[in-house]
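Lab meeting minutes (informal)
Scribe: AK
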Amino acid sequence: MAKDTLHNWEKKSAERQKLYKQYLQKADKNKVLKQLPDFHEEAFSKINCLDCANCCKNYSPRFKTPDIKRISKHLGMRESEFIERYLRVDEDGDFVAKSIPCPFLGTDNYCSIYDHRPSDCHRFPHTDEDVFIKRQALTLKNSSFCPITYFVIEKLLETEKRK
C-alpha cells in the first residue's frame, strides 16, 4: 500500500465503515489472525504514531489497578492522589482520564509516562491480537481515527479481493 493510499484516509475510512463491518462479520477468524502480525508490522513500518496521536488526543484508555499502581509509583504519588488528580470513573465503571487530550501527552505527541503507560495504551490499536476480530465494534471505531487500524483492515480487504 503506497503512501498515497494513506492520503485522506479518514474520509476513505468513513466512507467504508459499512464495508468494514460486513467484512469483519463474515471473515474467517483463523485466517485473519494468521495475517494480522505481518500487516501490523507493515503498518508500523509505514506509519509513525507520533505524527498522529489521535488516540491520546481524543480517547482515554482504561486505567486498571496495576496501571494505577505502576504509574503513581513512577510519579511519586499515592494511588489515591493519582486517581483524584487524573482520573474519573466512566459509564462502564472503569477509571479513565479526567481530561482529553490525555494529561500525559506532550505538545510533541510524546507520552511523558510511555515506559509506564496503561496496558490499553501498550496494546493499542490491537492490530496484532484477537481483539481485532473479536471486538468488531472497537475495531470499527479505531479504524475511524487510527491510520494503523485503517491500513490493516484495508490490507485484509485487499487480500480478500485476490481470492
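Next up, CB showed the second protein from the same session:
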Amino acid sequence: MFPKTHLTIAAAATVVVTAAILMSPSAQVEAKRMSYALDLEQGTVSDNGTVETPEPEAPNEVVINGQAPVADAEQQAKVTKPAPEAEPALEWQTYKIKSGDTLSSLFKKAGFNDGIMLSVIHGEGEADKLQRLYAGETIRFATDNAGDLAAIELQRSLLESLKIEKAEEGFSGQTVIREPEARPAFASGTIDGSLYLSAREAGLNDRLTMELAGIFGWEIDFVYDVRKGDRFEVVYEELYLDGKKFDTGRILSARFVNRGEDNTALLYTDSNGESDYYAPNGKSMRKAFLRTPINARVSSAFNLQRRHPVLDVVRPHEGTDYGAPTGTPIKAAGAGRVRFSGWKGGYGRTVILQHGDNITTLYAHMSRLGKGIKNGAKVKQGETIGYVGSSGMVTGPHLHYEFRLNGAPRNSRTVKLPDAKPVPASEMARFKRYTEQRLAQFNGFRENFQQLALASDE
C-alpha cells in the first residue's frame, strides 16, 4: 500500500527513535554524564571514554568584564596557603638562683659545659647580661629534640626577663619588659597612734606610707608634728599582671589634715616628662631642702646653751642630733656640691655640702661615706652621702646635722626653707586641666568611700 520510499523512511525513523530511547539516561543515572574533550580551535568534540560525577557549581559565580570567575578567597587560601610547620618541641629545666650559685655551676646543672656558656654570653644583643645573676631570680634552659641548647630565659622579676635564643649565626639576647596595668585605688585613715600604724590599718603598705610621708615631709615633721585625729586620704596605683594584683605603684594624689590645716598634693608630669608633686595652685610640695636628712628620732635638739655630754662644759650645740643604728643611710638635704669630705676633728667622718652662695649643711660622725662622695662632687637632693656611725667625739651612733645660713647656725627644724620651683607659667594651662581631672577623681573616690562607710554603720 505504501511506496518503497515511504517504507524506507519509516524504518529509518524507527531505528533513530529506538536508538534515542536506548541511549537516553534514565532517572536513576541522571546524576552522571559522559565526559568529552572539547577542542575549540578545531571545532570538534571527542569522547574521552570516561564517566564523571559533575562538580557542584560555585555559589554566586559572577563573570565580570568577560573574565573567568575567581575562586572564593577563603577556598583559594585553603588551596594555596601552605600548612604551617610545627615548631620543634622544647624541653625546659628551671632553677631558682641561690646565694653562691655561678653561671658556670648553673650551666653544669643543666648539662652544658663552659664552652657553650661562653658562646652564649659572647652572643649578639644583650646576651652578655646573663653574667649578672642575683639570688632569688629564676633561670630556665631549653633543649631541642637533639638535646642541644636552644634558649635561655632569666626571669629577674615579674616584669623583667632576659631572653636568649639560638639562631643560625649564634645566640642573641634581649631584655623584655612587661607593662603592668595600673588601676587607681583609694585609702583613708585617721591618726590614732602613729602614721605607720594608721596607714597599715587603712591598707597602705610600708612603701606607700614612706612615700606619703615624703610628699608632705617638707611641711610636716611626722615625728613631732602629727597629732591624734589628723586625717589622710590617698589615691594610688594598684598594679595588675594577667588580671592579678601583684604590687602597688605611685601615689597619684593625697590629702593630709594636720592640726586642722589641709594639705593637698597632686602628681603632675610636665611636657618634658618630669614628674613631681604640686599643690592645686601649682606650688611645689618640695622645698629646696629636706626638713630632716634621716628618718630617725631627735636625740639632742639645736641648743646654743647646751652642756657638752663628753666635755661637761657649756658649749653651743649648733645642730640637731638624730639617734639611729650604725649604717642607717644619710640623705643630702638639698642639691649642691661637696665642699668637704673626710675626717674633721671631733666631728669624725664628715661631709659638708655647699648649696648656692649662702647655705651649707654639715653631716658628722659617719661610719663611712657614700659612693662617689668626694670634694667637688655634685649631689642631688635625697642622694645617700654617708651612713650613721660613732666616729669622732661621741657617746654612741648618731647623725649630727647642721644648717648654716651665711655662715651662721640655724635650727634646721624651724628655719624657713626656700621652696622648690613652682609649675612654670608656660605649663600652667596644661597643669590646670590636669589638676581638674585629678581632683574630680579624688573627690569621686572620697564620696564613694563616705557612702560605703555610712552604709556599713547602719
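CB comment: The longest helix spans residues 428-457.
No objections, moving on.
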